[in-house]
Amino acid sequence: MSKRLSIFVVVLMVLVFTMTACQPAAPAPAEKPAAEAPAAEAPAAEEPAAEAPEAKYGLFMSHMTNAFTIEMSDAVKAKAAELGVELTVYDGGQDPAKQVSQVETAVTQGISCIVIEPASVDGLVPAIENATKAGIPVVVVNQAISKPEAASSFVGVSNVEGGILEMKTAAEAIGGKGNVAFLLGPMGSDAQIGRTEGYYEVLKDYPDIKVVFEQTANWKTDEALTLVENWLQTGTQIDAIVANNDGMALGALKAVEDAQLLDKIKIYGLDATPDALAAVKDGKLAATVSQSTTAQGQTAMETCYKIVQGETVEKEILVDFTLITLDNVDQFIQ
Amino acid sequence: MSEKKTNNNLNSFKELGIFFAFIIILAVLMILSPKAFARPANLINILKQASINGILAAGMMYVIISGGIDLSVGSIVALSGVIAASFAHPGEYPLIVPILLAVLAGSVVGLINGIGVAYGNIPPFIVTLGTMTIVRGVALIAARGQPVFNVTKEFEKISGGFIFGTIPNLVVYFVVITLILAFVLTRTVFGRRVYAIGGNETAAKVSGINVEKIKLLVYTLCGFLAGIAGLLLASRIISGNPTSGQSYELDAIAAVIIGGVSMSGGSGKWYGTVIGALMIAVISNGLDILNVSSHFQLIIKGLIIIVAVLVDIKGKAKK
What global pTM score does this model have? Predict the structure, then answer.
């Protein structure tokens, strides 16, 4: 009975997976070349006449489940409203396959320009290439894709630069020597690799700083809390904890605070999320780094608009990071 | 399932095996890291870190013994944590409000699971897979996609406080909840019926047990405990995070299985689950302290789960 049940469940799951996997892949490419060409070329040809009132913009977010992605989409939406253009926002749910099909659908339905925060470095390349081929400009925002030439423009920050700014601040604060611990994002993610590379870049100039712990906490506050609690149990001296994002920095902060070591261990984060800004304001978190999310979103939307207006834009537009400490935190809160 | 009569003997052997495995792991870690791992402060730390998963595992144990599974507990942790933190801002509501709402939210989801399983006759795997996804979505909507922070000191004290200045509150909750649930499971009619419906549902029905009612209660209990776990986690990280609790259901299931509870239901001992939860915390803590890379940690944890079950099977074969 239960065996039959489990077979049924497995069969059902396989069915569901194949359906969800095939839906975008199988029928879409088959229909698309036919549907795509007129849909894409027609507006391109009639652009001067039809474009002004009917220009449709699409924002494709990798997901909408954290402070960063919400701020990003809010910025793009605000800019679109300011420019007076129509914008549809798509939530990719952290699933590259879903985002690919969203882009494909939008392309077949006729869209003027795409702003995309890709869910995958590689996975979105074919969909972006397709859109470009169909004459639809694509502006990639925040997370670079593995084939930058596929898109019209990239607006973002360099993760390495962010890591450098964060680590440099930490290194100077502890007087250029001592022990540091790194909390890393999910291993292999673009941000984790870039930011951590930035840390080591800085460490080249500080031979007296030793990395005593380096572990992933998968962007999670609770994982970072447990991990740092365990580090502190070893009694190893730690002068600074440098985290790949704010969520983990806040977990570290709780562990250090509970152990009453806040006066000895400085903690650094990156992203400038609202809760981290509050912690900086309380004087608990030493600093966070803003990747100027709002500026990225606004610039991306603006770039898209410019392309549609026929202006030429830079292939890569980098927005500067901002260091946020107790001195300047007030101007970033809300 | 057919060797039900010998279950008692088997179980004592199985849990003995798990107990030995646990002692061996403890001993190895103590030898490898006498200064850090074996310190009393760290042992208390391990108990604290095992508490939330231990509470989840206790609920999961009831569900698995009854022949089901509950995949939604991780999402419930997120939802009840978000709700708790949302009502715990300074100067808004008395402390009892976030506590009650968090627990209520968990219980309601559990009740829905129970209705689906008991009265809708939908396989537990599917019902709870559905609620797992739905509840995660509700948590994200409730939190507007970002962590809910700025909670009162009293709220932080729920998990952050100590009894007698040394024992973390979390450990106290873990112990009290475990003892109550152990009592209910072994010393009450309800507990025996949970075993009965997991062992042989048809027989239980024939003997006059209201199977639907028992199932409903079991899933509600599991949701209720997940609500408590979510409240405790939110207090521990002083924020309600809609993405927290991911894969907590797997840790809870792992604790139950390591503890020797049969996945097909009907058998298992409560102390096995406690050892399972402690084992998971001990391994994580020990490997962190030894500074083993996260990549290797995954492999080691997976191997230990498989070996633990292997010990079980070997034990069965010998008997």
Answer: 0.78
